[in-house]
Amino acid sequence: MNIQQLIKENQLGLLFQQGSFGLEKESQRVYADGSVVTTEHPKAFGNRSYHPYIQTDFAESQLELITPPNTKLEDTYRWLSAIHEVVQRTLPENEYIFPLSMPAGLPTEDKIKVAQLDNPEDVAYREYLVRAYGKNKQMVSGIHYNFQLSPELVQRLFSLQNEYKSAVDFQNDLYLKMAKNFLRYQWILLYLLSATPTVESVYFKDGSPLKAGQFVRSLRSSQYGYVNDPEIKVSFDSVEKYVETLEHWVANGKLIAEKEFYSNVRLRGAKKARELLQNGIKYLEFRLFDLNPFEIYGISLNDAKFIHAFALLMIWIEQTATQEDLELGKARLAEVAFEHPLDKTEYAVEGELVLLELLSMLEQIGAEAELVEIVKDKLSQFADPSKTIGGRLVQAIEQAGSYQQLGAQLAQQYKAKAFERFYALSAFDNMELSTQALLFDLIKKGIHTEILDENDQFLCLKHGDHIEYVKNGNMTSHDSYISPLIMENKVVTKKVLHKAGFNVPQSVEFTSLEKAVASYALFENRAVVIKPKSTNYGLGITIFQQGVQNRDDFAKAVEIAFREDKEVMVEDYLVGTEYRFFVLGDETLAVLLRVPANVIGDGVHTVAELVTMKNNHPLRGDGSRTPLKKIALGEIEQLQLKEQGLTVDSVPAKDQLVQLRANSNISTGGDSIDMTDEMHESYKQLAVGITKAMGAAVCGVDLIIPDLKKPAEPNLASWGVIEANFNPMMMMHIFPYAGKSRRLTQNVIKMLFPELI
Amino acid sequence: MNIQQLIKENQLGLLFQQGSFGLEKESQRVYADGSVVTTEHPKAFGNRSYHPYIQTDFAESQLELITPPNTKLEDTYRWLSAIHEVVQRTLPENEYIFPLSMPAGLPTEDKIKVAQLDNPEDVAYREYLVRAYGKNKQMVSGIHYNFQLSPELVQRLFSLQNEYKSAVDFQNDLYLKMAKNFLRYQWILLYLLSATPTVESVYFKDGSPLKAGQFVRSLRSSQYGYVNDPEIKVSFDSVEKYVETLEHWVANGKLIAEKEFYSNVRLRGAKKARELLQNGIKYLEFRLFDLNPFEIYGISLNDAKFIHAFALLMIWIEQTATQEDLELGKARLAEVAFEHPLDKTEYAVEGELVLLELLSMLEQIGAEAELVEIVKDKLSQFADPSKTIGGRLVQAIEQAGSYQQLGAQLAQQYKAKAFERFYALSAFDNMELSTQALLFDLIKKGIHTEILDENDQFLCLKHGDHIEYVKNGNMTSHDSYISPLIMENKVVTKKVLHKAGFNVPQSVEFTSLEKAVASYALFENRAVVIKPKSTNYGLGITIFQQGVQNRDDFAKAVEIAFREDKEVMVEDYLVGTEYRFFVLGDETLAVLLRVPANVIGDGVHTVAELVTMKNNHPLRGDGSRTPLKKIALGEIEQLQLKEQGLTVDSVPAKDQLVQLRANSNISTGGDSIDMTDEMHESYKQLAVGITKAMGAAVCGVDLIIPDLKKPAEPNLASWGVIEANFNPMMMMHIFPYAGKSRRLTQNVIKMLFPELI
């Protein structure tokens, strides 16, 4: 069976490049000086018994970040980025993620705590490892790369050949070929990507094998790394032999469990090797890779693409490595691992030949030009070892003074970077900020999340068998279909709230001056606003804040309104300040005051300068990629200034409030001020009641309140509800301009998954 | 206290005319000959223990139709119309509503059954009445008119006077004034509106008091009507005296209960008179009115407006009738009742004076010109008794031969009228037909319904404390917020259904010919349709029904598609017929086949003639006010004919199917054919499963099925789902062009109110 030929003849090049990708990245939590922490795995990262994204590896200090599988490597990389940002922003202030595979500043062995997992077997296994290998060796970190070929490709290839009768056998041999050839040629990836040139001497029980100042390509992949006894040999000739030999070593006690077999390729698709016989190999896990300290997430997207291409080459080439070839490959790996990173490798010729074959494959399968460039760049590194990651690393270590210092510097730099736009998830910045905030909390809490439609902000959440869908951050199954429909219709909303006994401003519409005046009695002594039905620029509006006292005044106001429209409304006028109540279930979670765009004078700067200074606030930007919007200085703002006798060049007095807008929208530069703790409890309960009357689970209720400290009374003078909004905005509460942040997205998760307290 | 003056001085004219109105209309169910039925109250009218709209009065044969109160008389009248249409269309085929107050063709007393109500006390009370008055007198029907002044008016008037300290006392005296003056002047209404000139002789136990051929104005309001013993006198001087005197007659056994006091005005607002002392009178019930046989609903809207104005006059006039005036009023009523309907009344001068005062009032309160005209017309009837209802009636009876014959004719005519647009509720025809159908079923079932917003098809339903909202006929609280959002997004819908294991056609999009052809392997042997992403007039589409067999054919098809668009889709092609499954909860309630607009030749008529003939179908019309749409003969239809070698003037052969459209939409003249019973059960279950996967309670699922008789298999060749629709159309199932009607609105009600089985 010649795979290459089948692909070429049937033009399966594109399908050949499809697949599924997942990354698992270990790394130590460290202090600012790069030394490994002795603290517990942060509770904020939720429960390790099910967390799909944030786990611990061997030690309590050793994070393991796991992406979900994706059919596009780019998406896998986005997840890696997002999980990193969640971790970086959630870590205690004095903790960092160490960017190098080799640990630095190792605590004494008694202070290294194995991961405190719920399952006692998992803990017992780690304790066995301590006895067998010592704790220090277990503290080394790396990246595991999971790769599955497109099932459609495998099926198609199977149908095109006639050597195999069983589809499972065919698939197994395909993956075994990839595994064996990978083990044969893995040294090439090590040469190009390895980044463990040194380690502190306490790492070694019996003293360092490295001479002073000696650097190697990969301590982690050398005999001093985390490897099995050389005696342990497992056959990759067939799945049967693999199972047989692996079970042999477990049976005779040389391995305590199958998972103690640390091959750089693992056959995946079953919990126990024996199950592979039935299920077949589903995908491979490549475990060779050191963390790349020059990359914020430990691996570059380009290198991930290169590894994919390299893995494909392993089934593209004609030959299949024999068991002897495998031993050769392992030996060559050990040799190259101990070469100096700035030396040319002994096997450069083989490396170059293999990459030339890779280039030839890429051409034949119609790969993107970008990928070809990546491979060409790697090819050139055989001639110039200083361009390899290892080569660059030893130069950087020498510059920094030590690998611990280099690691500490980079760790701080990467953490700072993760805080640059602390309100966003960089990799998912095409989605709304509220969905990014929700995604952040979902990743942190460990709820399996699939993005169904990025443009539509549509997520599918899963915990065990429990599935929930979320759109736009808080539209869920918990609201009934009818509630947003009620809220969408202002007439119906008013009727429903009025019936339920809430204070709703009433309005009456008139089509003639005569009829309106004839109805004067309805409004006498009542605070009302008289306005044309379609208001334009506030023309024709009269407000009787103290109640209409006089028929003539009323008639005059109606007459003014009729100049602007054929229909005039007389509406109850509510005196007070508008507050937004964010209600979820039985609780008002946040109360917000929105203040129209403004600056406060300092007696020195002009209005324009004050605006620029205020706009420098980290939360302000275009308002879609930032929680708050920069204040503009357009026509409307200048008109507003003019009304106050000011221009953009005026210098307002110290503490003078300068209004730049009449409306309080955040989207026109308004300030958001959290008032949750200041608001009297009675209004919060009213907002909950209003939400219930709407049949809603999540609701933004706008109340007008003259005095937020006084308890609510049952009349419009005390408070009134002017709007109930479904899918209410969350960002203004999560990142207010002033006052306490209210992390509402966490409450959305609690509502959807009450079982996860 | 001078009410008139207060209203004038404070210009309360408009407020004075506001109020709340309710009608209760009794009538006998009769056979085609006008004789009273002996059948039970139809079960289809639901449960009389709570029915708000359809009740029985004294006898099992005596319907009582009750409108909800409305602030506009027009709306009350619409409800009266709607309730009538529901009753007319639900009655057994051989039963009718008798349009006259006096019963005809009375069964012998042993065959008259008192209403079989659940409450034994109600039945016992009726049996007492039989003993006291005999059954026949109880069989007389009338209209009760409930009227409440605007509470705002009463409050305003109270605040403007200083005679009363208590608002309740003030309100009571206001209504008592209206009641007393009404009792004083009620004869005027009797003169104008009465319509019980005669009755068959069996009605009287002791022989008819009428001479042969004698007609009177109102037997019903005469001593031969359904009135108390003249000895029973109840004081209207004050609420206290009213309670005292009424309780006196009950205590001494002359009345078995307070409700046996048959005053033409009842004080309402309490179950027991004594409670009025605390609650106050809330509204009045006027019980004087005979059924107007010339009106389909027993009363004209104009007469209802006239009665309103008359009731207002009763508080407008300065004097308040004394107890002696009341006795005078009652005596005068009895006298006028026994006058001949074509004779001038004895008291014409008083009647004219009162109506002149009414006209003066209308002018002073700024009433509509239309109302003034109505009153002027009534005024003229004092000079010409033949224009009164009674006058017209005796002429009509003489023409018909007997009042029974006249009643039978009109009853049949009114029933036929109610069937003219049997799919609509005439009075609510501004709403969608599906909401009309739902409203029909709600009225029939007896669920209290309020129309919150007619334009928005928004209803509020109530049974006991259980409230539900419905929009557009089937959007309810039973669907979750997220399901329509899922269904709105076709990408998400596909993902969700695909994950849940349903057969969903998959599609892949390409931006280059090269890439598409490189992916050929994905589509080999698969039935696919290749099309430009934005399809225009079907250009560039190639279908491989039998699967793509050949790379070149595939490449050619892709190339053709790329001529039309920059993006090309390759989509699974589903062979078969599209059916719409209407699912509610756990059940597929209806399956519909939509057939493109067509006619079938008869070898005689032209296409144009065949279309006209088909368009005469009663369900066809403009498609918004009718369930089906008339077939047009526009450009598209003519193009379609041309493709078949036909024009509108061609005469198709007998049984030749002539297609007039390619698309199967009902809105372009398509036929709807119910296939519920024909469809294999397995597909119905699939549709239920798809609905559940969407998290929906109500869903319209479109499946493509090649053979509806074969059980479903788990592959796209057997069936595929192409769409899931929220708020699916109901009318096409309720009124299909062919096949069985599926009354889905009843299922919506069952879903919302499962307690009502």
UniProtKB/TrEMBL annotation, chains A, B:
SUPFAM superfamilies tied to this protein: Glutamine synthetase/guanido kinase, Glutathione synthetase ATP-binding domain-like
Gene Ontology CC terms, in alphabetical order: cytosol
Enzyme Commission code(s) on record: 6.3.2.2, 6.3.2.3
Names of the cofactor(s): Mn(2+); Mg(2+)
Record region (Glutamate--cysteine ligase): 1-337
Catalytic activity, as annotated: L-cysteine + L-glutamate + ATP = gamma-L-glutamyl-L-cysteine + ADP + phosphate + H(+); gamma-L-glutamyl-L-cysteine + glycine + ATP = glutathione + ADP + phosphate + H(+)
Superkingdom of the organism of origin: Bacteria
Keywords linked to the UniProt accession: ATP-binding, Glutathione biosynthesis, Ligase, Magnesium, Manganese, Metal-binding, Multifunctional enzyme, Nucleotide-binding
Domain ATP-grasp: 494-753
Pathway: Sulfur metabolism; glutathione biosynthesis; glutathione from L-cysteine and L-glutamate: step 2/2; Sulfur metabolism; glutathione biosynthesis; glutathione from L-cysteine and L-glutamate: step 1/2
GO molecular function, one term: metal ion binding
Short name of any one Pfam family annotated for the protein: ATP-grasp_3
InterPro entries: ATP-grasp (IPR011761), ATP-grasp_PylC-type (IPR003806), Gln_synth/guanido_kin_cat_dom (IPR014746), Glu_cys_ligase (IPR007370), Glut_biosynth (IPR006335), Glut_cys_ligase (IPR006334), GshAB_ATP-grasp (IPR040657)
Role according to the record: Synthesizes glutathione from L-glutamate and L-cysteine via gamma-L-glutamyl-L-cysteine.
Family from the record: In the N-terminal section; belongs to the glutamate--cysteine ligase type 1 family. Type 2 subfamily.
Record note on quaternary structure: Monomer.
PANTHER family per record: GLUTAMATE--CYSTEINE LIGASE (PTHR38761)
Name of the protein in question: Glutathione biosynthesis bifunctional protein GshAB
Species annotation: Pasteurella dagmatis ATCC 43325
Taxonomy of the source species: Bacteria, Pseudomonadati, Pseudomonadota, Gammaproteobacteria, Pasteurellales
